[in-house]
């Protein structure tokens, strides 16, 4: 992975160049950014415990920010685990829990977008399911 980090120059949500080193964001980059969001939210919750204006923010702000930090943390862990499955070529479960084959939901929808080379698009759920 390149270490050429770009600087965030805009608050436009569509401007994502600073989040990735390449043309597209990697699973590893997503996991790192989500973990950074978790840390930032926890730090913000701690800072909000002693604001410059004497207001008790407790459950209204501090506790909610701390609770919100858990979700990006979980997302980041899941993406890091999926990245490991892909990079280590770990075996995938051969079917969905309801016995559908992988890609059954994607067949017939948006095939023009993927072309002939991909008949099955991996899902995060598939990557995180234990192999059978």
SSE diagram, text form:
Layout: H1 27-47, H2 62-68, H3 70-87, H4 111-114, H5 124-128
Key terms:
132 residues; 5 helices; extended; mainly alpha
Structural summary, described in words:
The chain contains 5 helices and no strands. The protein has helices spanning 27-47, 62-68, 70-87, 111-114, 124-128. The radius of gyration is 20 Å and the shape is extended. The protein starts with 26 loop residues before the first helix and ends with a helix. The relative contact order is 0.11.
Total DSSP helices: 5
The whole-number mean of residue pLDDT values reads 79
Percent strand equals under 5%
Number of strands: 0
What is the terminal separation in angstroms? 32 Å
Rg value: 20 Å
Helix-strand pattern: HHHHH
Indicate the percent of residues in helices: 40-55%
- Shape summary: extended
Spans of at least 5 consecutive residues with low confidence: none
What composes the largest sheet?
none
Overall structural class, as computed from helix and strand content, comes to mainly alpha
Write a concise synopsis of the structure shown.
The protein has helices at residues 27-47, 62-68, 70-87, 111-114, 124-128.
């Amino acid at each position: 992975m390149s270490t050429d980090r770009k600087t965030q120059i805009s608050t436009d949500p569509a401007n994502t160049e600073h989040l990735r080193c390449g043309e597209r964001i990697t699973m590893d980059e997503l996991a790192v950014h989500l973990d950074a969001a978790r840390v930032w939210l926890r730090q913000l919750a701690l800072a909000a415990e002693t604001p410059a204006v004497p207001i008790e923010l407790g459950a209204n702000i501090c506790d909610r920010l701390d609770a919100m930090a858990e979700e990006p943390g979980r997302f980041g862990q899941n993406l890091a685990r999926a990245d490991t499955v892909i990079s280590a070529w770990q075996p995938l479960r051969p079917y969905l829990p309801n016995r559908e084959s992988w890609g059954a939901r994607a067949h017939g929808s948006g095939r023009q977008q993927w072309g002939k080379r991909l008949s099955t698009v991996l899902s995060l759920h598939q990557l995180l399911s234990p192999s059978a």
